[in-house]
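Chain particulars:
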Amino acid sequence: MNKILKYLAYKFLSPVKYAKFIGVKLGANPIINTKYFGSEPYLIEIGDNIRTSINVYFLNHDGAVHVLRNLHKEFEKADLFRKIIIGNNVYIGINVTILSGTKVGDNVIIGAGSLVRGELKSNSVYAGVPVKYICSIDEFKEKNSHLFINTLSTEQVKKEKIIRTMFNL
């Protein structure tokens, strides 16, 4: 791909349009707030109804092979690539890094700042460095349902008033 064209796309397209432009396979209704899709974005498959926060990094090229290149002649020109597959209805928090070879199931929450590698099972919450299982989606709902406020589509001024009232501000 032409570097100038890719730069212009990065600069001027929305994150969703940019992801499609560079070859990320996207499902329906994505809300993506990152443009970091690694050097092989065509190895990334993202399901329906995904939402990412900002500064989410998808890395499908493992640069650690550099050490083997220097130690073993047979790896002198070797690269290491693996796919990243993200299921349906997944939320990925701020500053998450997803490493090559990762597979995330459906209905998964990945907490802020996590380092993700391996397989994340469906209907689960994960967080940490490295990422660890925290609880099921049902347990998350039970623990937090008393904290939820229905303000998603509320205009900002009204939303602020509701929140200030809740917190006695």
In short: The first strand starts at residue 25 and ends at 26. Residues 69 and 77 are 7 Å apart (CA to CA). Helices lie at 3-12, 15-22, 65-71, 137-144, 156-166.
